[in-house]
Each structure stands twice: as C-alpha cells, then as structure tokens.
Write a structure and sequence with these properties.
Largest sheet: 10 strands, antiparallel
Distance between the termini: 29 Å
Helix content: 10-25%
Order of helices and strands: EHHEEEEEEHEEHE
Strand content: 25-35%
Structural class: alpha+beta
CATH architecture: Roll
DNA sequence: TCAGTGATTAGG
DNA sequence: CTAATCACTGAG
C-alpha cells in the first residue's frame, strides 16, 4: 500500500515538460467552505514554457498578470478569460523562468473552466502556494499514469511552430477508446 | 456554429 | 482614454 504524500517544493521546481505529465493521476485536495476536504484526480494538463513560447502568456514579458509565473514553482497562476471562466495554472521551474501547467481536466470534470467551477477557484487563489497553503494542495497517491500527448488547445495565435508542440497530456483510460 | 462576458493589454 | 483579444462553455 503506497503512502500518500503531499507534493513538496522539489516537485514543482523542475522543468514544466516534466511536471505537466507528472501531475496526471495526482490528487488535487481542496478545503470547501464547510472545511471538508474534497479530492479530485488530475486527468489533463498542458505545459506553457517561458518567454520564448509564443503560446505562453509570459511571451509578452513581465506584466501584472504574469508576474507570479516568475516566482519559484509551486504557486498558482489564476486568470479570468472570455468574461466567464477562471483558469487554474501551477507555476513550475525556478525563479525568473516563467513556466506554468494549465489544469485542463479532472476525472469526471473535463474542461479548464469546469475545473475551476467545481473547485470554487477564483481571483483569491492567485499566488497561493501549493506547498504551504492550508486550503489547496496536491497529493501523490502512488498511482502511475498511463497517458497520451497531443497539441495544445485554443492557441491558434501562437504560430505553427508553437501550436504543434505535443505539450498536452491526458490520461488514457481503457474505457474511452 | 456561435453568443456571452469582462479582465487585461497595447497603443494614442 | 479606446479597442482588440482571449490557454472557454453551453445551447441550438
């Protein structure tokens, strides 16, 4: 029986191309308003890698919104898009290397907008530290993910080179084939 | 296929 | 200040 371990700083300070697939099958734990802890399995992620990555928000440099991406890995980068949806991202790698993983889906709750809706994520989670926070963190249940890769969604503006990078990772369930 | 909805950003 | 854009979703 594997031990359940809360992910520490070292997990998040690696390159985003290692962290994004490693987050699959990990459990996102969050304290609801009633103080009850709810857990969800991460099923789909996407990697956004530095200022050179034209699909990454940090490609425009340091701004008020992207500031947190320049912190050491483990923080949350939360932003609002299309006037309706909050997006949940996890900052990775070291200081001044702006990378982040978009949480695109949880088991039974596919879609980045649905993820934040079910979790109750909003502006107040911007900058939250997954390593020290008392209301949100990630656990390793000891499950090895079997996953597939694909191109990232919704980044047509990024140009052919960045658009075609296989930086989307998703659990490959036998019953979805 | 397409409207909805508002924060963020670049530019004047 | 203005206007364009947007790492999306749900209804039809």
């Amino acid at each position: 029986m594997a031990e359940i371990i809360r992910l520490k700083r070292e997990f998040f300070t690696r390159d985003v191309l290692e962290v994004a697939p490693d987050l699959l099958s990990k459990t996102l734990a969050i304290k609801a308003v009633d103080e009850e802890i709810r857990r969800y399995v991460i099923s789909e992620t996407e990697a956004y890698r530095g200022e050179e990555d034209k699909a990454c928000h940090a490609s425009k440099g340091r701004t008020g919104r992207t500031e947190i991406m320049y912190y050491e890995g483990g923080r949350l980068y939360v932003y609002f898009v299309y006037g309706m949806h909050w997006m949940l991202n996890i900052v990775t790698s070291g200081k001044d290397n702006p990378q982040a993983v978009l949480i695109r889906g949880l088991e039974n709750f596919p879609g980045p907008g649905r993820v934040t809706k079910i979790l109750g994520i909003d502006r107040s989670f911007y900058g939250e530290d997954l390593v020290t926070s008392g209301r949100i963190w990630i656990e390793d249940q000891g499950v090895k993910p079997v996953f597939k890769t694909g191109t990232r969604i919704g980044i047509d503006y990024a140009g052919e080179f960045w658009k075609t990078k296989p930086w989307r990772y998703y659990l490959d369930y036998p019953w979805t084939i």
